[in-house]
């Protein structure tokens, strides 16, 4: 059997090992993709440590773009040679969640090259747990989307993150020209949301992040939408307990924001941001923050607030991204700030987690 290079995750270690493995053969309804670009996400090492990757050793990498090189029986032969991206969410496609654009809640929900989330048998995940940090990947043909000619493989690999931002923006349900707070605005999801906000009703943005310098760079992504910034480093050492973040946001938006999209993974910033949402507004959380939430049910009732938790995009969300990219209404090349060869995957992960330099989106070229 011919061999390929792959970055493999093993039990008991946070580092990936570069190994030679067999190139998989596509079976019925499957395609084989030569990977041109695979996205990196900081969630991979965190979920590995939590045991959410059910099959080890495995090849991580859920953000995949490349060229179809072979198709199995019952797959469309016309896909051979096509430039594609992979929608990584595995699901049953028949339950009430799958039928209503909520496949991330399916009992069979898992992600190619990533973690398992569902409570079912996860039979698809057992076959397709290997992902895109390799020269080739085998996936179900029904999870392949053709890339528009004007979309690079790098952007194609990161369509999933852009789709996550679309999911959050849809949940925010902004009124026309609405005001929107985005936290962790200098991270991958933050920059994706800033870039897409104009297409989902935003008329004013307030961007929250650690560094004033890094926030200034992100502000340019807002395009014609006015954007202001709030740097946590400028709020004082006690901002987490004295409510300084809420105070600064309320100074900028005295009536409160129409919506806030929160990507903070920990700490008091999420709660303080929620307190800056105005009457009839919406607070969307997609950061996995386990800190206590300060708003009471009385607060929600009195101000008619909506609190929305969401995770992972759906096929409809990524279809919206591909449509915007194909039409030229959205460009995203500038979001790809870091590129690594497969041999440097561990250095790439360390750079993402260390945050010593601003990384918006990172891709690996196998």
What does this structure look like?
It is an enzyme of class 1 (oxidoreductase). This is 2-deoxy-scyllo-inosamine dehydrogenase. Residues 12-359 form the Enoyl reductase (ER) domain. It catalyses: 2-deoxy-scyllo-inosamine + NAD(+) = 3-amino-2,3-dideoxy-scyllo-inosose + NADH + H(+); 2-deoxy-scyllo-inosamine + NADP(+) = 3-amino-2,3-dideoxy-scyllo-inosose + NADPH + H(+). There is one protein chain. The chain is an alpha/beta fold and 366 residues long. It has two domains: 3-158 and 332-365, Medium-chain alcohol dehydrogenases, catalytic domain (Quinone Oxidoreductase, Chain A, domain 1, Alpha-Beta Complex), CATH 3.90.180; 164-309, NAD(P)-binding Rossmann-like Domain (Rossmann fold, 3-Layer(aba) Sandwich). The protein has twelve helices and 17 strands. Strands 3, 4, 5, 8, 9, 16 and 17 form a seven-stranded mixed sheet that branches. β1 (3-8) and β2 (17-22) form a beta hairpin. α4 crosses α5 (188-196) and α4 crosses α11 (315-327).
């Amino acid at each position: 059997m011919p061999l390929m290079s792959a970055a493999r995750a093993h039990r008991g270690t946070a580092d990936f090992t570069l190994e030679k493995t067999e190139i998989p053969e596509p079976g019925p309804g499957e395609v084989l993709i030569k990977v041109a670009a695979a996205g990196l996400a900081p969630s991979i090492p965190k979920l590995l440590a939590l045991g959410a990757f059910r099959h080890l050793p495995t090849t991580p990498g859920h953000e995949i773009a490349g060229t179809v090189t072979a198709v199995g029986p019952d797959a469309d032969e016309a896909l051979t040679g096509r430039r594609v991206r992979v929608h990584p969410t595995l699901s049953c496609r028949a339950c009430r969640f799958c039928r209503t654009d909520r496949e991330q809640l399916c009992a069979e929900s898992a992600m190619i090259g990533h973690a398992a989330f569902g409570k079912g048998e996860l039979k698809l995940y057992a076959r397709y747990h290997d992902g895109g940090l390799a020269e080739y990947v085998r996936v179900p043909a029904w999870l392949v989307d053709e890339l528009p000619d004007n979309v690079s493989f790098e952007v194609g690999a990161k369509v999933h993150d852009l789709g996550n931002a679309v999911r959050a923006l849809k949940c925010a349900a902004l009124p026309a020209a609405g005001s929107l707070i985005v936290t962790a605005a200098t991270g991958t999801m933050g920059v994706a949301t800033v870039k897409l906000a104009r297409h989902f009703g935003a008329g004013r943005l307030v961007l929250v992040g650690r560094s004033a310098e890094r926030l200034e760079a992100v502000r340019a992504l807002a395009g014609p939408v006015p954007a202001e910034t709030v740097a946590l480093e400028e709020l004082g050492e006690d901002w987490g307990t004295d409510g300084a973040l809420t105070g600064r946001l309320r100074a900028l938006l005295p009536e409160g924001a129409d919506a806030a999209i929160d990507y903070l993974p920990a700490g008091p910033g999420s709660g303080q941001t929620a307190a800056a949402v105005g009457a009839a507004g919406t607070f969307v959380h997609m950061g996995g923050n386990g800190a206590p939430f300060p708003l009471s049910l009385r607060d929600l009732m009195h101000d008619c607030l909506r609190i929305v938790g969401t995770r992972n995009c759906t096929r409809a969300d990524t279809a919206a991204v591909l449509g915007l990219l194909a039409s030229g209404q959205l460009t995203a090349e500038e979001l790809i700030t870091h590129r690594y060869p497969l041999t440097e995957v561990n250095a790439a992960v360390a750079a993402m987690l260390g945050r010593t330099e601003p990384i918006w989106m990172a891709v690996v070229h196998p």
